[in-house]
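re: that chain from earlier
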Amino acid sequence: MAKWWVVNVPSGLPRDPGQEALTVREEPLPVDAQKVAGPFDTEAEARKKLSQLTHGNPSLPSQVHEAQGPVHVSNPLDFVQEIGHWIGVLVTDITDVAMWRSIGWIVLGAAMFIGGVFLWLKDKGVLPDVVPIPV
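^ sequence. v structure.
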């Protein structure tokens, strides 16, 4: 007689950790299934356990750690490593020659465009001769 399990089967949809949908499956289980509770002799027993674990909503499981192992507690100083990472990324980006070359071309293009507009406006008589731009 086949056994029934409450399992977490990743669906491939983008979800936050801990928000995977739990479901009831009969053996044989899918390869990527994580056993949460079981085995149970009947599907009704497995569904009852699923309801207890999720408080009636299988898409939002409660904190279940029966078959998942100990809870991971992060280090409160992990942010220091992240700050170091972003400083390294910033230094890498600032020292990138290709970026500065691209910025130079953009600045040159903007200067030429603004200069051309000034010359065009001066030629049309819109700008006074106070602005010393040789024509």
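The beta strands are 4-8, 22-26, 34-40.
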